């Protein structure tokens, strides 16, 4: 099992040094070209999917989780080993969700013009 951390490009030379040292020591850093913010989480997720497609096509499964999520990897592996999960996306599906136009998680009309989202996977893990 391998773990990688999707992070934004460094803003300062100090950050770049820290990321380079982490990457050289553990080989677990993937830097994407995005701002690390709530508003850009969709882009970060897409960036991770693109990276996985390019670099991990040989692995049987991958998982995306936020840094504040605790995952019981042993229970997860048991589930994956005992269920046919080929070509599956496992998540908690959200449906009938209205688009938030104000506040911390707002989505601009220019980004998504509809009033309701189609069914989607909840964030976090």
Number of domains: 2
User: So how many helices?
Assistant: 3
What general form does the structure show?
A: flat
Strand order of the largest sheet: 1-2
Percent of residues in helices = 25-40%
Number of strands: 4
Strand/helix succession: EHEHHEE
Assess the beta-strand content as a share of residues: 5-15%
Q: Which spans of ≥5 residues are poorly predicted at pLDDT below 50?
A: none
Provide mean pLDDT, rounded. 89
> So what's the oligomer here?
single chain
Family: Belongs to the glycosyltransferase 31 family.
GO cellular component, one term: Golgi membrane
Pfam families: Galactosyl_T (PF01762)
GO molecular function, one term: hexosyltransferase activity
Summarize, please.
With 125 residues, the protein is of the alpha+beta class. The protein contains 3 helices and 4 strands; from the N terminus they run βαβααββ. The two termini are 17 Å apart.
Helix and strand arrangement:
Elements: E1 5-8, H1 13-26, E2 29-32, H2 41-55, H3 73-82, E3 93-94, E4 120-121
Parallel strand pairs: 1-2
Antiparallel strand pairs: 3-4
Features:
about 120 residues, alpha+beta, 2 domains, 3 helices, about 30% helix, flat
Task: Describe what this molecule looks like in 3D.
With 125 residues, this protein is of the alpha+beta class. The chain has 2 domains: 1-59, no CATH class; 68-125, no CATH class. Helices cover 31% and strands 10% of the residues. The strands form 2 sheets. It has a two-stranded parallel sheet. It starts with a strand and ends with a strand. The mean pLDDT is 89.
């Amino acid at each position: 099992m391998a773990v990688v951390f999707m992070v934004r490009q460094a803003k300062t030379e100090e950050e770049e040094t820290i990321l380079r040292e982490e990457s050289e020591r553990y080989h677990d850093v993937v830097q994407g070209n995005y701002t690390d913010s709530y508003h850009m989480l969709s882009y970060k997720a897409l960036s991770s999917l693109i990276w996985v497609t390019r670099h991990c096509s040989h692995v049987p499964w991958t998982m995306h989780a936020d840094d504040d999520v605790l995952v019981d990897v042993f229970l997860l592996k048991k589930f994956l080993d005992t269920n046919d999960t080929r070509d599956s996306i496992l998540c908690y599906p959200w449906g009938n969700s209205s688009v938030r136009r104000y506040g911390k998680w707002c989505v601009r009309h220019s980004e998504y013009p509809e009033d309701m989202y189609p069914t989607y996977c909840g964030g976090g893990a």
